[in-house]
């Protein structure tokens, strides 16, 4: 659908990539939104307020995980300035690690990068550790608190781990526990990191460096 710069209803195009959120497509969409808002405001005597611009952008996010993210924080986002709003989008969706993003979106992105380099570079044990320790901190600590949980257990496949984490993430989101994360809760503690197998720590570091290139 082409944008209609004279109508707020179709002012910006819907963002719903067919496969996944990518840096290129998201940054292009954000730039398009900025340009079209400027054009619209220059051609209309009643320019759009910042909260209206954010509202239009939020409702145009039709990619499922982004739509969920928007709906969960809608009231908070509508109070932001445009710079803070676009910064929040970039921090959530352009991060190379899971951070505070939706787990399913993070797992999809991680699988995409593993498919590029292959499972020889990213073996099963390293991939499981990336799923666990790169996930949202609330989910990570929730998993580590499970009785007898061992991400390194050979009988636990990465597919099974992802399935378990996805189910527990859905439960966390349904109760809103993923939002109130304090600053000390933003990274794994040394105790949590100590559960990584020593032989696989270098592989994890190499993988993180690869993602940050």
Can you describe this structure?
Helices cover 58% and strands 0% of the residues. It has 213 residues and is mainly α. It has 2 domains: 23-93; 103-211, no CATH class. Helix 2 (50-60) runs antiparallel to helix 3, helix 6 packs parallel to helix 8 (158-175) and helix 7 (137-144) packs across helix 8 (158-175).
Structure keywords:
213 residues; 2 domains; disordered C terminus; 10 helices; mainly alpha
Write the layout of secondary structure elements.
Blueprint: H1 23-43, H2 50-60, H3 64-77, H4 82-93, H5 103-117, H6 124-133, H7 137-144, H8 158-175, H9 190-193, H10 201-211
Helix pairs in contact: 2-3, 6-8, 7-8
Helix content: 55-70%
Sketch the major β-sheet.
none
Mean pLDDT: 77
Tell me the number of helical segments per DSSP (H or I, 4 or more residues long). Answer: 10
């Amino acid at each position: 659908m082409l944008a209609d710069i004279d109508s707020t209803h179709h002012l910006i195009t819907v963002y719903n990539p067919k496969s996944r959120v990518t840096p290129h497509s998201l940054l292009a969409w954000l730039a398009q939104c900025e340009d079209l808002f400027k054009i619209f405001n220059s051609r209309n005597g009643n320019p759009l307020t910042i909260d209206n611009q954010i509202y239009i952008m939020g409702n145009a996010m039709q990619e499922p995980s982004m739509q969920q993210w928007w709906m969960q924080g809608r009231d908070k986002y509508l109070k932001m300035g445009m710079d803070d709003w676009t910064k929040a989008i970039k921090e959530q969706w352009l991060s190379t690690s899971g951070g505070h993003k939706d787990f399913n979106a993070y797992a999809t992105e991680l699988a995409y990068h593993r498919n590029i380099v292959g499972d020889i570079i990213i073996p099963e044990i390293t991939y499981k550790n990336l799923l666990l320790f790169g996930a949202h901190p609330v989910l990570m600590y929730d998993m580590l608190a499970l009785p007898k949980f061992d991400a390194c257990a050979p009988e636990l496949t990465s597919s099974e781990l992802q399935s378990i984490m996805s189910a527990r993430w859905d439960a966390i989101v349904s109760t809103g526990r993923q939002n109130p994360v304090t600053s000390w809760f933003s990274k794994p503690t040394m105790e949590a990191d100590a559960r990584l197998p020593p032989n696989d720590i270098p592989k994890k570091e190499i993988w993180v460096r690869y993602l940050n290139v």
